[in-house]
Amino acid sequence: MEPILKARGLVKRYGKVTALDHCDFDLYPGEILAVIGDNGAGKSSLIKAISGAVVPDEGEVELEGRKVRFTSPTDARKEGIETVYQTLAMSPALSIADNMFMGRELRKPGFRGKWLRQLDRPRMEKMARDKLTELGLMTIQNINQAVETLSGGQRQGVAVARAAAFGSKVIILDEPTAALGVKESRRVLELILDVRARGIPIILISHNMPHVFEVADRIHVHRLGKRLCVIDPKDYTMSDAVAFMTGAKDAPTQ
Amino acid sequence: MEPILKARGLVKRYGKVTALDHCDFDLYPGEILAVIGDNGAGKSSLIKAISGAVVPDEGEVELEGRKVRFTSPTDARKEGIETVYQTLAMSPALSIADNMFMGRELRKPGFRGKWLRQLDRPRMEKMARDKLTELGLMTIQNINQAVETLSGGQRQGVAVARAAAFGSKVIILDEPTAALGVKESRRVLELILDVRARGIPIILISHNMPHVFEVADRIHVHRLGKRLCVIDPKDYTMSDAVAFMTGAKDAPTQ
Amino acid sequence: AGHGTSACLITKTDTNPFFVKMREGAEAAAEAAGITLRSYAGKVDGDHETQVAAIETCIADGASGILITASDTSSIVGAVTQARDAGLLVIALDTPLDPIDAADATFATDNFLAGELIGQWAAATLGDEAPNARIAMLDLAVSQPTVGVLRDQGFLQGFGIDLGDPNKWGDETDPRIVGNDVTAGNEEGGRKAMENLLAVDPSINVVYTINEPAAAGAYEALKSFGREDDVLIVSVDGGCPGVQNVADGVIGATSQQYPLLMASKGIEAIVAYAADGTLPENTPGKNFFDTGVALVTDQPADGVESISVAEGTDLCWG
Amino acid sequence: MSGDADNFEAAVKAKGAEAVAEFKDTRKGVLATVQHALHVNPALVPLFVLVASIIGFGLLLGSKFFSPFALTLILQQVQIVGIVAAAQSLVILTAGIDLSVGAILVLSSVVMGQFTFRYGIPVEIAVAFGLMTGMICGYINGWLVAVMKLPPFIVTLGMWQIVLAATFLYSANETIRAQEIEANAPLLQLFATKFQVGGAVFTVGVVFMVLLMLVLAYVLKQTAWGRHVYAVGDDPEAAQLSGVNVRRTLISVYVLSGLICGFAGWAMIGRIGSVSPTSGQLANIESITAVVIGGISLFGGRGSILGALFGALIVGVFTLGLRLAGADAQWTYLLIGVLIIAAVAVDQWIRKVSA
Amino acid sequence: MSGDADNFEAAVKAKGAEAVAEFKDTRKGVLATVQHALHVNPALVPLFVLVASIIGFGLLLGSKFFSPFALTLILQQVQIVGIVAAAQSLVILTAGIDLSVGAILVLSSVVMGQFTFRYGIPVEIAVAFGLMTGMICGYINGWLVAVMKLPPFIVTLGMWQIVLAATFLYSANETIRAQEIEANAPLLQLFATKFQVGGAVFTVGVVFMVLLMLVLAYVLKQTAWGRHVYAVGDDPEAAQLSGVNVRRTLISVYVLSGLICGFAGWAMIGRIGSVSPTSGQLANIESITAVVIGGISLFGGRGSILGALFGALIVGVFTLGLRLAGADAQWTYLLIGVLIIAAVAVDQWIRKVSA
Ligand SMILES: Nc1ncnc2c1ncn2[C@@H]1O[C@H](COP(=O)(O)OP(=O)(O)OP(=O)(O)O)[C@@H](O)[C@H]1O
Ligand SMILES: Nc1ncnc2c1ncn2[C@@H]1O[C@H](COP(=O)(O)OP(=O)(O)OP(=O)(O)O)[C@@H](O)[C@H]1O
Ligand SMILES: O[C@@H]1[C@H](O)[C@H](O)CO[C@H]1O
Ligand SMILES: [Mg+2]
Ligand SMILES: [Mg+2]
């Protein structure tokens, strides 16, 4: 099988820091690929390079066999790649609904939408509320609340809900449950499984090993800006994975 | 035994949202107290009210039996209460060392420090580096790097290191390991145990149940802006705790 | 003169001592006649909108007449017409409107003439050296407001230099002109403009300045280069500090105008108009009432009429 | 499966049965309603200040101030600042600032005038050229800000000088007289057209200002483009990551701002009758003042454009009120200074109370 | 203990044995060194633009420009703007802006002059009063910003009008002439005192400007207060949470800014010889321009104060250079506009390359 998303030799430097050092990457159709690694290993840099948020200094990316060169996240979104960044990428002063539909707002049907370009707020609000309820984020009291007034976890929930609602080809989640509670994390994992069941592959960056081993089909171990190895969670234990990523054990030759 | 830190009837409202609803709180000397609860339950609001970051609308706080009224975090710090906020509270454009010593910079000895008020940068940098190494944050390459260029986890590590270095009476950690890797989280847990060994009590907010049950002496379960109950991790299972905080099970009467 | 009569004075700014004097004159005359005076001013020279708003306020306020030194002589005409239609007497002070008969009357100095006098004086003082003069022109602003243009062009005409377009400074081709620079009419601008032109050509020996603060600034620049004694500075206004500067040798000669007189005459005209509708009359042979201009210097030159510094001090802005 | 001995996550695996957790809202009554209204619609705050100041001057000055004539006079006096403030608001909402508004306004009006009178081009087309000039200046600003990523303050400061100098050079500092325009190209004075409603006198310019504000308020609130303007001003990086075309949004804002300044130039011809290259000098500072008094944050992304209209009116009310009360010019400036600070202080205070 | 069957965390429990993980730095050579220097010390960027423009004009104009005379003339021409830019930089570093600098400067100089000449107070004491006046104005600004939490733009806009009007009302717009000052109170002209080094002429004012910048650069970089200024500008909430007294820091910045403006007023007397209430009108916009060209962010917390000095000098070099190259006043005005934008564009470009 051909990878749906493939990267070769990605390099990204920030001044003296080399965040990505000739890094390779493969995502296969329909799979959940976990990316694990130490803090600062370059995981976020990798998915930023893949999703157009930064333009890599070297290397190339292929989507479904075609070479692509995303220069902005909008390019990637147009191709159906949806990303939840670690920084969440939300406009703090705008409402939850505004944020969820940012860049793909729904317009009213008929004249008002077509000619007056009026937004269909009730519909957007309803959809936003539904998505959040699906994630079990029930303490949100007001869908028109500014995002900056949400708790850390609520904010993350909104970002995940947005990606799940719109991703059509690939969904990338950079530590989606970091700030979430037990219940909310659970919902996100269920959501990830739902999405895979819809046939959409997912990239999941996480430091939560039990979660990774629970849902991932394959695990990409990232170390010092490179892909160290890819392992099958059925063949290795969590201890092995942690040992690889911290350098305590040598990576298996593949 | 008298609590070292005690709060009664705390209320904090944000417009229509009531984040704290007559909440009580007790921290005993030398203990690790975990605070758990759903996203948006009001955990961060609670510790903000205790540490002077917000002034509660109602209620009172006592430290070592004295009534205190902190109107800014500086007040609390002067009393030896050190907090890692969920938002981390760092100045993105400043360096790691600058951030760690913000508000309590070290000056050069002698004339240059006393009269020219010159900072002792080498000493601050060395101390900062030592603290980070203690936490196993080894991928940080440059102690003079701006905090905004750090990875999410590196940033959190810096904040935790700061609190551990300076807290003398109480240390409050709001989800200190949320963005941390396996190794780095482990270091933080060890650090928490070290700190307790030094006799300093700790408040730990976390969504990671295994961690909570591993280190906590008592667990404060927060729900809907209130303290629902306090449980002893030796008497209850993680499943019980999660059931209490999500409302699936009624709280034990105490 | 009647109870309840009121008049308005609208000046370009009220930070220039010239307009301060004008206001003092108007206030004194108004008090003498027992009428109320309201004063308005733009924020900066050229602030036209504030003047329009002031006229509207005067109409709303039910004033009998308006004295105005217009920042924009033709643009103000619309508002002035509105005021006259509402039955107010409008008198232009210092600066004629365009067209001049847009106002009921004009009490003014002839700014072109003021420039011409100092130009003639400078040329006569240089005598045989005039054909080799090196002239610096320190103007008001790049927007070239009319006062500045009139004085500048008057000076050049008086000096005997071909004007090019008389509505515009800076288009002259005479090689004696080293350059034009702008001063904003204050000391700071005067000094900087002088320095700039000296850097272009250190042999400058004649300096035209738009007004006396600019002249004082230019003098500081010359002084810092040790050139203060061999350069002729001429200016316009004849304010008390300016005349004092002529006495001290900072300025060679200045054209004196009489803002206080303009204002007091203006108030008298409004009082007369309010009483019985009398309209003011022009100076015979001119289409405005000329409040006069006089050259003040202690070094009179042949063929240029002038008054002494002592006389100038007595009259300064009287 | 995670290998937890205590499979605590199972406790939350059963989904659907949960009720929405709710905090209680304990505040009641009129005060709470007012607080809530202000909180939801922050433009009400400057409106409140405006109404209070009108009432204040009305009590102080009586019918002299509180007449349809005086009140509509204020509208006429603020129309240019109001129109320019609309342009300024858009730019400030994107966390920019436009110092070139005054210069663009003047250049547009000079182009309209000179094209008609110097080149004899039909006045309709000259007007179109004038508006286009504004748009082109705006486009250059926008391109420099969005594509070259230069700070808006510097870009528009430079443009201000460039456009102003170009205006003087092009127009040779000549004014086109009102009489001439009235006779040969009355369309240029369109915005001065008056109509009376009772004792109140409205001009096309005033109506244009109000309509412009209302339309922009609608667009900002009810269209995707409007939401993008806010998002870009709030956090451009987040906006970019969440799929907003930041570059296009910014350029469109500056172009629209330039166009509005072109209209302001046209309105200026109506207001002063003539085409004068020296007008509009204070438009920058006055429009920014109106915007900030109106409660729009200079850091972008926060505030309502109607606030800018109220901000302009607040300054207009104070200026006319103080003049009618007999304060002389310097005292008026001094008091306006005090009142600018006071207006914002009141605004801040109300916001705090209504938070 | 967590009940993991697979006790994966044990893998990282052994601590101490780890080596520091390191990425490789692959960049080498002179270019990399330059890039790194620019990266670490961003004030070098405007310095680079400055040097380039001096060389450019030097090549174009030869010894006319490239002489000690012309180059020190530039220093003298920028001294006031330079001093004010120091004050402005401090405020802008806290994410504020100070529009009242010019007005405070003038008021301070008027107080020095009037106290000496109107009241016959000894000149030393009059100078002290002048400086104190600046500090008081600064204190009021700071109090309104830090305690009342009003936006700095509005506070200083209001203060600008208030202080300026107060100056005119107090001074009755009268100038104190240079000759009088020279005769009776030469101390007021202290900053004009000259000394020559080769063909170069330096004044006390120029030396003061340079020393002030150096001292402030030291203070900002090497003291706790300086770090707090940056932290407050960067993110006031984070600064507050991490233990900075935001209120006190802000107030101290505005007071210091006011004091520096007082010194600028004193220097102004030296420069123009006289005390004139109409000076300093452009100090606001010129100082902000210098600061921004110098690479300090208007959003606070970023940039080096030495950049502001270089920014002021860049504008000075262009102004004189263009005049010497024969551009007339209007064209100079236009070209300065172009060059302001170009200078910042080059700055931006260098930063990007050196990132
Ligand atoms: N904008 C930037 N400027 C400079 N350095 C950067 C920048 N972004 C990332 N880095 C550096 O690149 C390295 C990789 O960062 P990255 O965010 O990709 O790590 P990560 O694997 O996602 O870590 P975490 O698990 O903590 O999120 C880090 O050393 C970081 O300091
Ligand atoms: N500044 C604010 N303005 C308005 N509402 C706020 C503000 N801060 C918090 N809230 C609201 O108060 C409630 C409690 O928030 P808080 O941050 O204390 O939750 P938390 O328990 O810390 O959640 P998490 O686990 O997600 O961090 C939430 O509903 C949140 O939306
Ligand atoms: O005549 C006056 C004064 O001379 C002043 O200096 C400038 O404005 C003019 O109108
Ligand atoms: Mg990351
Ligand atoms: Mg929280």
TrEMBL record, chains A, B:
SMART domains documented for this protein: AAA
GO MF, one example: ATP binding
Domain of life: Bacteria
One Pfam family hit: ABC_tran
Domain ABC transporter: start-end pairs: 5-249
Keywords tagged on the record: ATP-binding, Nucleotide-binding
PANTHER family in UniProt: CARBOHYDRATE TRANSPORT ATP-BINDING PROTEIN MG119-RELATED, SUGAR ABC TRANSPORTER ATP-BINDING PROTEIN
Protein name in UniProt: Mannose ABC transporter ATP-binding protein /fructose ABC transporter ATP-binding protein /ribose ABC transporter ATP-binding protein
Organism: Yoonia maritima
From TrEMBL, chains D, E:
Keywords: Cell membrane, Membrane, Transmembrane, Transmembrane helix
Protein's UniProt name: Fructose transport system permease protein
The species this protein was found in: Yoonia maritima
UniProt subcellular location: Cell membrane
CDD domains: TM_PBP1_transp_AraH_like
Keyword Cell membrane attributed: yes
Membrane topology: Multi-pass membrane protein
Superkingdom to which the source organism belongs: Bacteria
Pfam families: BPD_transp_2 (PF02653)
Main subcellular location of this protein, as a coarse class: membrane
Single GO MF descriptor: transmembrane transporter activity
One annotated Gene Ontology cellular component of this protein: plasma membrane
TM region(s), chain numbering: 43-66, 78-105, 125-146, 197-220, 250-269, 281-299, 306-325, 331-350
